[in-house]
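RECORD TYPE: protein structure
NAME: PH (Pleckstrin Homology) domain-containing protein
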Amino acid sequence: MMLAAFLFVGISMGVGAAGAFLGGMWFGVTFTLFTVVVMCAVLSLAIVVVAVGHDGLTVRSRVFRVRLMSVPRSEIASVSVQDFRALSWGGWGLRWRQGDKALALDGDQAVVIRKNNGRSSLVVIRESDQLSTALQQIL
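PREDICTED:
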């Protein structure tokens, strides 16, 4: 994923430079700034820390130290693992659908956290079984 991100930036910088040459300076600057914003979004999801503690689940970006998802223990009604299809959620990354939230990073198994209010939060990582077990232990 990191290689793809850096490849994207390299290509975008080249297109931005070509755009500045052919279309004017403002096109090149705008395109380059857009590239930087997209790169920051990609990096924020590239490396995450998933933590389960006595207070619940927290998922943070290791790069920018931004909290991507948080589910307090008091809001968790149940935890299960189910098959996950990224296309049904609109792809990978941070997704919302009908009040539910999914953080789809890697894998085909989602840890489904059903909340007391009827909504769900999904976390899709390779270690879904370990995450599910850890969450069930704090309930």
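COMMENT: The mean pLDDT is 85.
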